[in-house]
Amino acid sequence: MKKLGLILLGAFVLLAMPVICVAENELTIIVYMVNDDKDTTLENANFRNLNNLKAWGPGENKTLLVQLDGLSTGSSDEQKLNYKGGSRLRIEKNKLIDEGVLGETNMGSPQTLWDCLKWAHDKYPAKHYGLIINSHGSGLFTWWGDGSVSASEPGKVVFNPDRRPGRFVAYDHTDHDALTIFEIAEVLKAFNSRFKQTGKFDVVGFDACMPCGVEALYQLRDACDYMVGSPETTPINGFNYDAMARLMAKNSTIKPETFAADMAESLNNSQIGAWKTSQSAQLVFAVNQLSMQLLNAMNETGKSFALRGQAAFGKGTNYWNLNKVAEAFYRENSDLNGASNQAVIKQMGKELIDAIEAARITRNGVVSITWPQKAEYQKYHAFYKALDMSRDSKWDEVLDRRELGIK
């Protein structure tokens, strides 16, 4: 009887103990594929990417998930999965497993991104998380949706993580919407506060055109640890999904930094790098120090300045190679109109070069800075001013002074 009592007491204690959620996976990767385009080019490329993922599967202790949004007319791969509107898939070796059809889905909504990440966490919790946003991109400025450059309140985020489930990147043509960098940052910060016991979301990769700007890196500093992306337009096939899945399949554990670096370096593109968001504050500090000296130089001389040997990304002149900007000031390939602080500006250029290198975890990689010409800057002025970097540095004031004549 005494032995039975001890057993019952032990069972009671176990039942009374709080339930502890133990992460089942070492790593969960979510690929957020926005195939809803005006033609099938992106969708066809991503069908090939899905085949590359399933050729390897996620390997041991890892989960590989995909949420995709197909054309409104519908389409399917060889497994005849329903891609009309939104669908969720789990990738296993040689298998695409249907995790649910969502119907027409606005992939440019922060609520949709939140619901996707919450699904991944609730069903496949992990110690570490990676998010790859596979879509069209337009660089920092976002053209469609809430908080975009055309909105009445640029930078505004309409997002409530407690709502029941129902531009920068992720352009959804059916819903004419896109995710802004503001929206992505807020969704990830909500994920961290709800689901991460320690630290931040691990890796965010932008498989899109021109996302890798210093402003985006800084906006994500409290949202994730590593960012991967290109400052330039990218080929339609995007990331090397075959190499990514192979890395997952062949390694039982992968450090997030290793995953981020491998994702960038497997593309063999010297412009694409992986970056530590924790170093973005020092990077923006260096931009600010340079900016203050440039303002002093313009105020002293009453004139603007020019740089030689610069390179813009994309078809326009909104985004410039920050590496080259810093190099031009350090190498004195600049026209500062005889300003007395030229030696200080040279030193600030060197410190900016050092800050760029400290933030990068890959051998190569380029980060851009926004520097529009007058007409473009006038149109996007309010959006740019809403950024954290504009609040915490004087680069926007340099643009105000140089492009708009505002003192």
Keywords for this entry:
8-stranded mixed sheet; 2 domains; globular; disordered N terminus
Q: How is the secondary structure organized here?
A:
Elements: H1 2-16, E1 25-34, H2 41-56, E2 62-69, E3 86-92, E4 95-103, H3 110-123, E5 126-134, E6 169-172, E7 177-179, H4 181-195, E8 201-207, H5 214-219, E9 224-229, H6 241-250, H7 256-265, E10 273-276, H8 280-301, E11 306-307, E12 312-313, E13 319-321, H9 322-330, E14 334-335, H10 342-359, E15 368-370, H11 374-385, H12 388-392, H13 395-404
Parallel strand pairs: 1-2, 1-5, 5-8, 8-9
Antiparallel strand pairs: 2-3, 3-4, 6-7, 9-10, 11-14, 12-13, 13-15
Helix pairs in contact: 2-6, 3-4, 8-10, 8-13, 9-10, 11-13
Q: Can you characterise this structure?
A:
- With 407 residues, this protein is α/β, with parallel strands linked by helices.
- It has 13 helices and 15 strands.
- Helix 3 (110-123) packs parallel to helix 4, helix 9 runs antiparallel to helix 10 and helix 11 packs antiparallel against helix 13.
- It has two domains: 25-278, 3-Layer(aba) Sandwich (Rossmann fold); 280-404, no CATH class.
- It has helices at residues 2-16, 41-56, 110-123, 181-195, 214-219, 241-250, 256-265, 280-301, 322-330, 342-359, 374-385, 388-392, 395-404; strands at 25-34, 62-69, 86-92, 95-103, 126-134, 169-172, 177-179, 201-207, 224-229, 273-276, 306-307, 312-313, 319-321, 334-335, 368-370.
- 40% of the residues lie in helices and 19% in strands.
- Helix 5 (214-219) links the parallel strand 8 and strand 9 (224-229).
- The strands form four sheets. It has an eight-stranded mixed sheet with strand order 4-3-2-1-5-8-9-10, with helices on both faces. A three-stranded antiparallel sheet has the order 12-13-15.
